[in-house]
């Protein structure tokens, strides 16, 4: 056993409380695994007087982050407060003062991760962020280490629990998006302002992080093409079921001809695909590599203790590295500069739902437009709509997204088509 | 980029060929990830003249392992030849000569792993064995590192592809064990002597390795209670289906009251359990921890390239550590000495299939025996058998295995019971 290592904990919300709890509850085992005891020496909070669900000695609290960062006795800073206005500055200061940093802050890493990793490598400290993607599921370390022998071809997953809860609810209980969202908010799965989850921004941040690591090239939040789930209706969910799919919010990154494609979209997933069975608050990440084939990682993607599991795993690693005298040996992994592939060039199958006049020849007209724009159709459903109109649903073969956009523009402007209501990708 | 690191490859069979292929095909990317190029400098083979599926320069071959072990230019020994009569001695010699060792040899590790890890730690070299369990699926590193903050409660999985292929075949195509085994042999999934796979010995070796790491206590092959699948009949598969289960060979280790229970048994797995969907040659490992909750790792558990993926991941790690000057920092993880729990004390649900005389009162007699031995029944099916006999199937509630054995002994010796045909665990 080596000497106690002191940790400064920034944030005592859902994740922070979990970290405190896990370090205490599993403390004796963790000390053995880390080669020595770990002690939370100071905790940054916003409100010193707030009532908290767990008992924490009040003398650990401070509202000044620099009381942690400037404390020479603290060797590891654990940042679980989120946000990034001041956080970047604080973490850079911590790295400069030779403290290893563990963070769960996906917003920050999806934008400033590369800068932080470079600075940490130069300072000879660790910068670890396993908890930033998919909560408790081990994915970042397996990707960087275990799968390092592979050329990764694709990484995709269900990495936002809120939208998966809503879509599972819509699928299983045939309720509307609005009703499912309201229930998610009442249960605390969705925030009062659900935009970041529902519009796919959260998933986009996480896939940017995963894509950077998988392809060893800088992919940031703004490189990801995003469509959220707020436009998904019960009709889409019903057609998915009829056609043998379930609707999931899929974040996917692929390398195609040396370019990186990173897209978040509501997606028709075949019912027999491993990702189709990932329900409720579970997350899963699916990886295709040229040696391993297909591998999937499945577990709880959020929540106090699961996320704390990932944070504490990183803390133990940072502490082990201090004792072994090997801090800061993690490699900066973005040695390539691969261009981001434009959405128009991405190729895939798509689901299209539209309403058209129900009169002779309309299907021929639509088929002609698809033919002209090189959009080949795999399956099709037609249903009576109201009055003189019909609802038509198409699933395409693989098409260039740019060609699909041309087809949709021509359809929308054609007099026989009342409206193109939905376009979703199909895997 | 740092200087080239030379590797000695022991074995050029299925896995060895895969390792050669992956290191060549992904070489430029691997060099970047490992901080420098990796070169296979010598290859140990049994037969220098053998025709091989891949092209390898013949001048790399040798039949003398000590040409690799004693070569001062070789820094990493990769052992993928299997067996352990001479292998232990050779690897200990390599460690003594300060070479890092990467191995996929589960037979060896399940018996001598602790000795090898200790020796490697003392010599200041790495000893890595991700490929020894579940082929390409990252499980050992995630368990040791990512989940280090957890008290692991249970680790279980489908970790033998041959038996999973046979049981999947029996389930999906309603064929007998013998027919499924024969097909597995014809397709190359099962060996001519299938004992090690079919009787659960291979799975027992792997669960011994996983249990040692999960509970930080030495668990070896001989500590595992094993029952193979050769007694599983099409009737068992049929009853499983009727009762809402599928039959899988499950290797499971749990910590109960400070003792370790490690058991391999054919098992009724509920159809909605994530492990139920793991088909054919796929493997999956399911982990329960007191922080992460439930996590599952899924992928190809065998085969040339998937296993090579894990081996090459370890080679890259070993090479990175050489360049960073941090070899041999992996901790010896068996700091506890937890006793092995006797099978009689293990508690769980069980499926029992027996044939009895079909006359009034027989069910009452059997029920009385169960009651007397504290075996509580959850569900029961009775079917006409031939002549004057009936087939009875029971699924118990949780029972002590010792109590169940008492019940079975009393049933077997009772005149109304013709024969107890099968007892399988239920999860």
UniProtKB/TrEMBL annotation, chains A, B:
Report the SUPFAM superfamilies cross-referenced here. ACT-like, Glyceraldehyde-3-phosphate dehydrogenase-like, C-terminal domain, NAD(P)-binding Rossmann-fold domains
Q: Which UniProt keywords apply?
A: Amino-acid biosynthesis, Methionine biosynthesis, NADP, Oxidoreductase, Threonine biosynthesis
Query: Where does the record locate the signal sequence feature?
Result: none
- The superkingdom listed in its UniProt entry is Bacteria
ACT domain span: 351-425
Q: Does the keyword Cell membrane apply?
A: no
Instruction: Answer whether the UniProt record assigns the keyword Hydrolase to this protein.
Output: no
Q: What is its EC number?
A: 1.1.1.3
Q: Known catalysed reaction(s)?
A: L-homoserine + NADP(+) = L-aspartate 4-semialdehyde + NADPH + H(+)
Q: Which cofactor does it need?
A: a metal cation
The record's annotation in PROSITE patterns points to: ACT (PS51671), HOMOSER_DHGENASE (PS01042)
| InterPro entries given in the database record | ACT-like_dom_sf, ACT_dom, Asp/hSer_DH_NAD-bd, HDH, HDH_cat, HDH_CS, NAD(P)-bd_dom_sf
Pathway listed: Amino-acid biosynthesis; L-threonine biosynthesis; L-threonine from L-aspartate: step 3/5; Amino-acid biosynthesis; L-methionine biosynthesis via de novo pathway; L-homoserine from L-aspartate: step 3/3
Membership in a protein family: Belongs to the homoserine dehydrogenase family.
Q: What is this protein called?
A: Homoserine dehydrogenase
Species the sequence originates in:
Fodinisporobacter ferrooxydans
Highest classification ranks of the organism: Bacteria, Bacillati, Bacillota, Bacilli, Bacillales
């Amino acid at each position: 056993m080596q000497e106690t290592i002191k940790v400064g904990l920034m944030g005592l919300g859902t994740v922070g409380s979990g970290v405190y709890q896990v370090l205490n509850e599993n403390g004796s085992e963790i000390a053995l695994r880390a080669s020595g005891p770990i002690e939370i020496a100071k905790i940054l909070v916003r409100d010193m007087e707030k009532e908290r669900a767990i008992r924490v000695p009040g003398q650990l609290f401070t509202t000044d982050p620099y009381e942690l960062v400037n404390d020479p006795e603290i060797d590891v800073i654990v940042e679980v407060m989120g946000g990034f206005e001041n956080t970047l500055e604080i973490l850079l200061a911590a790295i400069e003062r030779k403290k290893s940093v563990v963070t769960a802050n996906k917003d920050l890493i999806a934008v400033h991760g590369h800068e932080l990793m470079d600075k940490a490598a130069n300072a000879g400290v660790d910068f670890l962020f396993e908890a930033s993607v998919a909560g408790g599921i081990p994915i970042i370390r397996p990707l960087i280490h275990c799968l390092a022998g592979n050329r990764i071809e694709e990484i995709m997953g269900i990495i936002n629990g809120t939208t998966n809860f809503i879509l599972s609810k819509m699928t299983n209980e045939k309720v509307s998006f609005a009703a499912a969202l309201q229930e998610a908010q009442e249960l605390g799965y969705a925030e009062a302002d659900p935009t970041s989850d529902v519009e796919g921004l959260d998933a986009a941040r996480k896939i940017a992080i995963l894509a950077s690591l998988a392809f060893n090239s800088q992919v940031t939040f703004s490189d990801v093409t995003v469509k959220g789930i707020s436009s998904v209706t019960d009709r889409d969910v019903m057609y998915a079921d009829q056609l043998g799919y379930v609707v999931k919010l899929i974040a996917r990154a692929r390398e195609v001809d040396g370019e990186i494609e990173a897209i978040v979209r509501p997606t028709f997933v075949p019912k027999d695909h491993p990702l189709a069975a990932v329900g409720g608050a579970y997350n899963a990440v699916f990886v295709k590599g040229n040696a391993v084939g297909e591998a999937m990682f499945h577990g709880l993607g959020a929540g106090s203790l699961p996320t704390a599991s990932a944070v504490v795993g990183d803390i133990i690693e940072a502490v082990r590295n201090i004792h072994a005298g090997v801090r800061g040996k993690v490699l900066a992994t973005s040695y390539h500069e691969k261009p981001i592939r434009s959405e128009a060039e991405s190729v895939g199958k798509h689901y299209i739902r539209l309403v058209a006049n129900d009169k002779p020849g309309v299907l021929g007209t639509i088929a002609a437009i698809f033919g002209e724009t090189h959009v080949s159709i795999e399956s099709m459903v037609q249903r009576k709509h109201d009055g003189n109109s019909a609802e038509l649903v198409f699933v395409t073969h693989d098409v260039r997204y740019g060609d699909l956009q041309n087809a949709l523009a021509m359809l929308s402007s054609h007099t026989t088509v009342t409206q193109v209501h939905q376009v979703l990708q199909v895997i």
